[in-house]
Design brief:
Elements lengths: L8 E4 L5 E4 L5 H10 L1 H12 L6 H9 L1
């Protein structure tokens, strides 16, 4: 937790998933850090090109299972 006090901390899992850990009241700082993150910006670029759509009904059904 102390590592996340001065700035948001990017956590990477072995399978490539990414999480950000930051102080809850530092939302503006988190946004600024993510704007500066080349890796996060690349992630957003890839996501914006993905036109895959999943109907809400399908997602709701999967979460109930």
């Amino acid at each position: 937790m102390k590592l996340a006090e001065p700035e948001p901390l990017l956590l990477l899992t072995a399978d490539g998933r990414e999480f950000v850990l930051s102080l809850a009241d530092d939302f503006e700082q988190e946004v600024a850090a993510l704007r500066k993150s080349k890796k996060f910006q690349e992630f957003l670029e890839v996501r914006s090109k993905d036109k895959t759509q999943i109907p809400l009904e399908v997602i709701e059904k999967e979460t109930r299972s």
